[in-house]
Amino acid sequence: MSMTFKQPKKTCDDPNCPFHGTLAVRGRVLEGVVHTAKMDKTVIVDREFTQFSSKFVRYERRHGHIPSHNPPCIDVKEGDRVKIAECRPLSKTVSFVVVEKVGEER
After folding, report:
1. Which residues lie closer than 8 Å to 58 by C-beta, 6 or more apart?
2. Over 80: is that where the pLDDT of 88 sits?
3. DSSP assignment of 87-105, as one string?
4. How confident is the model over 51-86, as pLDDT tens digits?
5. Cα–chain-centroid distance for residue 85?
6. What 3-state DSSP class applies to 55?
7. Is the dihedral of CA 14, 18, 22, 25 positive or negative?
8. Statement: residue 1 has pLDDT above 60
């Protein structure tokens, strides 16, 4: 793993874990809040950002939902603030993996 993140305390045997498996991490590193954690090893991360509107000459708030792989050693829940990193496509929609739990939102 080329980027430096906090090592999780637990271990796992997931092959798609960047710490204990063979998954390489590259590209963008984003931060957001876990919106949904109902799927098996997958979470939806909600990310808010600002976009400049040239018509009104001001910024508007936008958000995006990013499906991310949730390794068993990190195991985040809904409402947790997390860092996600880009990886190879793991499924049709999942191209990010949770690499660090930053804190709790609620």
Report:
1. 52
2. yes
3. ES--SSS--EEEEEEEEE-
4. 999 999 999 999 999 999 999 999 899 999 999 999
5. 6
6. coil
7. positive
8. no
